[in-house]
Design goal:
The protein is mostly beta strands and 465 residues long. It contains 2 helices and 36 strands. It is elongated.
Length: 465
């Protein structure tokens, strides 16, 4: 039955994104070569469906676009929202063999070389006009922080758009990074360990709920903040490329969310010793069950266990315990509901509840009236009771003169028909069995058991007098 402080920032994931972007750019076929501005121009979007590539430059100083083909003459054109193929806006260029270059490049235009029907386009954006300015941010007041985080902030983040050759206004998504520390549950250790989170996302940071949606490790999966931490918002990735990235932090965020891992271990402690019980189905009595809860303390601070006995017409609370671990002995038949409630001291909103159902079976005691020791090995050669849910047990075997032949306290064991190491003669013997069942009552059973022997079995013991 199974019911997750530091200020260290890790940019490994973001660096991996940059390397991936660089590798992807290297794999893309650059139909036009863009140079100029501050730093290196960035291929920000490669729209293969519309045959257009979008380049960011930082500042328009000395921005040039070059094109090379087998033709010795190229006619350059540009458009603002959609190319007019019947009356294109022509742009002058400088020809050098099969390469031509335009120098009078402007921000917010699409450029192309008119070289037949398979035209390819390039759009130029001066990123210096669009770099984000994140001054501060904070968690939205009254937001339910039990399931994730949502922010509001003082920032200037403009949309970056371009027009495809078909005239469709298209937005380029920015990529930001969110960094914080949380806790991660380690099943093999049965404990929480610190985890540094540094994840990128391509949505509006002030219109996104950061929560563990989807599978762990997926792009939209942001682990819950389970410990007090600094939260940093950085970006965007384009600004980082040009070395003008900005960031803002919540220096000290007090975690509110609660994550709990609860389980049980059931051990039958009745006659015969301790045996770990199966976790499914009915349990024998007496069974000691250990209920354990592990949570992100001290955010999760109040643990309450309740043991309820379910009746036909009512429910009775028999135990209430405050603590992470509860050990309870179930020795009465019936159905039980064990409820765990975990709450935090900082927010009454964040709570955790789990329930376990425990079914203790009725007592069964069946006593045989005959057996044949030494005659049919493995078949009815042991006098053994068939029992279930016996809390206490003790039994005796006597002969007709009242001599004790055998005594035992484990109902799973039995008499092999021997006394002092030798088989007893055939005949009637008497048993006395005392036991306590799951109804709490002590029972006494008396009766006789017949020892059968075949004629070819050699007697090993004279009758005991």
């Amino acid at each position: 039955m199974r019911m997750n402080r530091g200020k260290k920032r890790k940019f490994g994931l973001f660096l991996a994104c940059i390397l991936f972007l660089c590798a992807a750019s290297a794999q893309n076929t650059e139909y036009y070569k863009v140079t100029g501005g501050m730093g290196t121009p960035l291929l920000a979007a490669d729209n293969s469906r519309d045959r257009i590539q979008v380049y960011f430059v930082y500042g328009m100083e000395n921005v040039r676009i070059s094109y090379t083909s087998s033709s010795a003459s190229h006619q350059w054109c540009r458009y603002k929202t959609r190319p007019d193929l019947n009356d294109p806006e022509r742009v002058s260029s400088v020809q050098d063999g099969t390469t031509s270059t335009i120098t009078d490049v402007e921000d917010g235009y699409g450029y192309y070389v008119d070289e037949g029907s398979m035209r390819r386009y390039v759009w130029i954006i001066d990123y210096s006009k669009y770099e984000p300015d994140i001054r501060s941010f904070r968690v939205i007041p009254d937001f339910d922080e039990c399931e994730g985080l949502r922010f509001e902030g003082d920032a200037d983040i403009k949309d970056i758009t371009y027009y495809t050759p078909s005239g469709v206004l298209t937005k380029i998504n920015r990529v930001f990074e969110l960094s914080y520390q949380t806790l991660e549950w380690k099943e093999e250790l049965r404990s929480f360990l610190p985890l540094d989170v540094s994840k990128t996302f391509d949505t509006d940071p002030f219109a996104t709920t950061f929560r563990p949606s989807g599978l762990p490790g997926s792009e939209r999966y942001f682990p819950l903040v389970l410990t007090d931490t600094e939260i940093t918002l950085s970006g965007d990735l384009f600004a980082r490329h040009f070395g003008v990235e900005t960031s803002a932090s919540i220096p000290y965020y007090e975690a509110q969310a609660i994550e709990v891992y609860a389980d049980t271990t059931a051990v039958y402690t009745g006659p015969g010793g301790n045996v770990q019980a199966e976790e499914e189905g009915e349990l024998l009595a007496p069974t000691e069950v250990t209920f354990s809860a592990r949570a992100n303390v001290p955010v999760a601070s109040l643990f309450t266990w309740k043991v309820l006995r379910l009746g036909e017409n009512d429910t009775t609370e028999i135990v209430r315990f405050n603590g992470e671990d509860l050990v309870h002995m179930f020795n009465l038949e019936g159905e039980y509901l064990v409820r765990l409630e975990v709450a935090g001291s900082r927010s009454k909103k964040c709570e955790y509840t789990a329930e376990f159902r425990i079914l203790i079976t009725e007592t069964i005691m069946e006593i045989p009236n005959a057996f044949s020791p030494g005659c049919t090995p493995g078949i009815n050669d042991i006098f053994r009771v068939r029992s279930k849910s016996v809390v206490k047990f003790q039994g005796w075997i006597f002969n007709r003169w009242g001599t004790e032949m055998f005594r035992w306290t484990d109902p799973s064991q039995g008499w092999d028909g021997k006394y002092r190491g030798k088989y007893v003669p055939a005949g009637a013997y008497y048993y006395l069995i005392e036991y306590t069942g799951t109804n709490g009552r002590k029972r006494v059973r008396k009766g006789d058991v017949n020892v059968y022997r075949t004629k070819d079995v050699k007697m090993e013991l004279d009758p005991v007098e």
